[in-house]
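Researcher: I'm comparing several assemblies side by side, and this is the next one on my list. It has 660 residues spread over two chains. Same procedure as the others: predict the full complex and return the structure.
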Amino acid sequence: MSAVRFSPPYFVGIDLGGTNIKSGVVDNDGRPMSSVSIETHAGMGPETGLDNLVAAANQAVTKSGLYWDRIAAVGLGSPGTMDLEAGMLLDPPNLPGWDNFPIRQRLADRVKKPVTFQNDANAASYGEFWVGAAKDDRSLVMFTLGTGIGCGIVVDGMIIAGRHSHGAECGHIIIEMENGRQCSCGAYGHLEGYASATALVKRAHEALESEKNPSLLRSLKNDELTSRAISEAADAGDPLARRLMRETARYLAVGAVSLMHTIDPDIVLFGGGMIAAGLPFLEDIRTDIRAMAFPVPAAKTRVEYAQLGGDAGFIGSAGCARMAFHRHSS
Amino acid sequence: MSAVRFSPPYFVGIDLGGTNIKSGVVDNDGRPMSSVSIETHAGMGPETGLDNLVAAANQAVTKSGLYWDRIAAVGLGSPGTMDLEAGMLLDPPNLPGWDNFPIRQRLADRVKKPVTFQNDANAASYGEFWVGAAKDDRSLVMFTLGTGIGCGIVVDGMIIAGRHSHGAECGHIIIEMENGRQCSCGAYGHLEGYASATALVKRAHEALESEKNPSLLRSLKNDELTSRAISEAADAGDPLARRLMRETARYLAVGAVSLMHTIDPDIVLFGGGMIAAGLPFLEDIRTDIRAMAFPVPAAKTRVEYAQLGGDAGFIGSAGCARMAFHRHSS
């Protein structure tokens, strides 16, 4: 019975996106104590953006009922491109004008706490590893399905961030080397060029133009033809929409199998907006993975949806801050 | 100045193959003190095979001039399939009849030393990481080009062995999902089905049958049409052979780029028999990698040939034994 009062550390996680900044205070066991979301106003440049990062963190701390003196460290997740070791943004397409911005140090100067810096998809996957769908696992591969395809890999608690901050850019593995589709990055044959929400919508437009069969999708205006609308039309029994979703599942299975034959994780997770398609979509992915993977991983690797939703980014970023804090204080 | 005499540990590495067993004693700094090679006689089954493993290790120790009491541990590398945690061979195609053989424990019982067990391609890559072409690096991806395509991945000193002993089976990533070639494993579109020595020879046969152009390769008897012969004909200026080698380089670059966008290592290595094709082949691989990878890894990731040749397996296996020894004794 010690007389010293144990004061557990708390962490602020920040998930910087091109549109919104999400932030929350997370306790040492990964429980979010608060969460807030404000607009990034990315187009106003990095100095305004930095003000907004600080504002989001301050709001998260206030909303948690804690004071900054209980916060041990801050974790920031951000879209790339980036130099993680240097704590720099390099040339981030979603943050125009933030080039070569030393974001980690600038944020640390403002909040006067140690700041860790991680790729947003890596941070989200670490959130799922820490307290989400993979919390009882030792390793995971996670695909985040949205406008693009993000990816994160954790092996024995270590994020595969890469030597040049390009680890787990698995939206950009090559799944079709001959005559592959063009990816949003400009290259050809990448997974993202087939299976992102953007690619799904593009494939729908192509099918509607080149085919004459009836489809619910034909009644949609251009801006209504979203991945969500395609998924809903598939649920309503529309054959074209079903085929498009089925193909998407197969493309994702191809990517997942290549990762299972590379990382061989306990679990493969899918997160992001597209998992609103629900369990039939997941079951299609599983079916195709089982058909293509080697027998042992096909039988044993779990394939699931992520559980933390839009909170994975700030929770995982807080987890990265916690990991660095405990490493330095042990 | 201590009076205690420092007695550094030595390690026996064993590289078990379908045809030969290579073994050597390796010192704590990765220098081989001896090496021997004997026939596996795999077809005589695992009990005879075990006798041969012990014989190879004994010969290696004798040839090193040391005694077994100076050997701290033994490392075994073996082809799969395997269960690394259980120390079991499962259903190894190259070791017919060795199914479900508890090889790690059986070998430990015989040599009366701790034995580590690793996939042969992983062990070879660890050898290159420890004292070979990647000895100054923190991470590597290595492809071993032979009858099949082996692969090993090391990140921050940790071998990516996988949760189900299927880590770094990157010969079996999918590079062509639509109408891909059949791989030796039976599945379609795998890297190995395009770029192994076996696949190169198969592609040569197909080209000779379907095309009418003259080629040095037409003068070869069936059993003379090897990957080595194709590489030599390419060196001699034969257009078909050149095209076949050039395509092989591109296939390997596709695989390497997917790994660079997944692991993002310091260095990508190519080893195995096919690197006898020499520097022009490596330069072709580099050219295609630079054309396909993201700008930062394209510019910074080194792409080289392995340096340890056929010794990588036993040196790396000894390195695995050393890693476990120092972990347990620290």
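Model: For your comparison table: Chain B touches chain A through 47 residues (CB under 8 Å).
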